Amino acid sequence: MPLTLEQLNTASAADARQLLDGVYEHSPWIAERALAQRPFRSLAHLQNAMAHAVRTASAEAQLGLIRAHPELAGKAMVAQHLTAESANEQSKAGLTQCTPQEFERIQQLNTAYNARFGFPFILAVRGPRGTGLGKQQIIDTFARRLDHHPDVERAEALRNIHRIAEIRLNDRFAAEPVLGNDVWDWHEQLAEHSDPGFAEKGQLTVTYLTDAHRACAQRISHWMRDCGFDEVQIDAVGNVVGRYHAAAPHAKTLLTGSHYDTVRNGGKYDGRLGIFVPMACVRELHRAGKRLPFDIEVVAFAEEEGQRYKATFLGSGALIGHFNPAWLVQKDADGITMRSAMQHAGLCIDDIPKLQRDPAHYLGFIEVHIEQGPVLNELDLPLGVVTSINGGVRFIGEMIGTASHAGTTPMDRRRDAAVAVAELALYVEQRAAQDGDSVGTIGLLNVPGGSINVVPGRCQFSLDLRAPTDPQRDALVRDVVDQLGLIAARRGLRYTLEESMRAAAAPSAPAWQHQWERAVDTLGVPVFRMPSGAGHDAMKLHEIMPQAMLFVRGENAGISHNPLESTTNNDIQLAVDAFTEVLHQLAEEPLP
To answer: Is 0.85 topped by the overall pTM?
Structure first.
């Protein structure tokens, strides 16, 4: 019989420890510490308590936990000395049926890994969906992680241990994340569509109005109809718009959604998670025959990334009346204008102004998004409530000195433009860190016509400065620009600096942020508040209506805009549950 939370909460301390035995390999101290938090409100609460016990343990105890795990396809497996849980997991991954070549490769990796890190390679071989990774996926991950810094790999090992424990708890409590699985599967199926030149390499790239992009739109629209949306259409810029009607006519509308385009060779979850989570919620409402006191409008925005044309947030911008007709003459790398691409896709350009939404008809906008960063991973938290989307300013600059002979120019006589920009980069790093939540980046640094034996006379650079509020951003910009002038003056250099972009910060509406906080707390998950360093469609809708976002933890240290971008069925399930809870809150206690 499956274990229940009631059994665990009411059991004696000794019996409760026994009920959790084997969730973490040979480490009963974790359950003992976690059980101090009883009663558990949810399985997610229990999982967090156990992860917290590990995170707050000594480095020695954490290392002991890692070393308690067996090698993959190692001596313990061959000798059949694995725990029942480990034996089941390695068997499901096919590791008990390796070819001689696969077994030899894994042994080579085990040897190299142990020599580098001093502990066994840990991987949740049942994977993010819980159904198992393929042997080649396991081998590729093994080889990739060999290049990690020891501190990074130690943290990754612990994260995989937590995922193993999460799956074991699912099994023990017979808790299947059904909706998380469905949403995860939608991502996999939509990723079958990719632009030419990338699809052949197994890479995901979906740029505005390509064949792959239009195939994605069709598939999303079909899924929306299957979910029970009352109205589904592809609008004049390629947004896929689904509307689920309220219980009564003329009700206001809750707007939600995100984008379905991708960067080149990107991940499957950026943007798309914010489409599929609310779709799953609407599907469940439809299956239950339930209507809410408001319409739900889910928009799969056609373009956010600005990859094919220099027109970011095209999809969400159209909803606030910010479609710039000058974009229509822009050409892509193949010389195709945006106008031609839209006409080829059958979009009616004349209807674009009609897409502008009247905020008087809307309650607000909420968006679910993969975090795209390491913070939630490091804190062992599945969800984060966004407090603000950072405002940003970008510059393109050039430092101008004097090119001279690298061998004959004394160090105190140089006018080295590149070193000056390097000094600025170090200042940006130090100054942004002072704020705690500001960020600064010099992502482009180029020495035109540079040579190995020439002191750089010119250095072109970019500057990207972001902060959660406009005053904080402006103070950061002021200090960095002032320091640029001081560096140039002290080194006898000149510089140019041109502002190329300025975006206002988008603080979450307090009442809407509180809705997410209440929802997360209801799930038994700690409420963690965090700013968003990246821009999102919500920052466009922020200009006309209140907005708030929910972040979902990503795997692989939260990497994004990368094929390794991923999340788990459990974390997706929690996102669906949180979204559902927000819907219930709005239905029962409408915001003023």
So the answer is: yes
